[in-house]
Design goal:
Elements: H1 20-31, E1 55-58, E2 61-64, H2 65-73, E3 82-85, E4 98-101, H3 103-112, H4 129-138, H5 144-151, H6 155-162
Helix pairs in contact: 1-2, 5-6
């Protein structure tokens, strides 16, 4: 029987008898051997609509729920090591979906899965996908400097676009 994630957590002033950490442990045990995500329904950090990770207080410090779940069910995580997701679902705290990794490992995983902000999605992007496609098409008949001037970007930027170091998804 799946754990009831809709009931009120018991780690607040109304229910002081059980901490959110205890609730987390009970939820994972009740979830059993399931491969499905186990989303944390309360205390999510981050902006609405963005990446939101579950948070819980442990030993007087706020910790991500993933870190607490990993430490309790898998093993210790040294400082500087993250509990990364294989499922790419930030609120999920299923220990079967977590693996230890550095910040660099997590960034590489994000880029490999194309979950990072790239292309037109990036807040500092000066070009559109269509302009990059056009730039690559015109590269055979225009100089790199002419392309840089035409699109209002630097020469180094043009070289990186043409070598697909930037905008590799197109």
């Amino acid at each position: 029987m799946p754990y009831n994630l809709t009931k009120e957590p018991v780690g607040n002033r109304k229910f002081p008898s059980k901490s959110l950490r205890q609730w987390l442990i009970e939820a994972v045990i009740a979830h059993g051997d399931s491969d499905e995500c186990l989303p944390w329904p309360w205390n999510l950090n981050g902006k609405e609509g963005g990446l939101r990770y579950g948070m819980v207080r442990e030993h007087g410090r706020m910790q991500t729920v993933t870190r607490v779940a990993y430490k309790h069910f898998v093993g210790p995580l040294p400082d500087g090591v993250l509990a990364c997701h294989t499922c790419d679902n930030p609120p999920c705290f299923n220990p079967k979906h977590l693996f230890p990794g550095s910040y660099k490992d997590n960034e590489q995983d994000k880029k490999a899965k194309m979950r990072h902000v790239y292309g037109m999605k990036h807040s500092l992007a000066k070009l559109t996908d269509a302009q990059v496609i056009e730039m690559r098409r015109l590269a055979h008949i225009m100089t790199r400097q002419a392309l840089a001037d035409r699109y209002g970007v630097g020469l180094r930027h043009v070289f990186k676009i043409l070598r697909k170091e930037l905008w590799p998804h197109i």
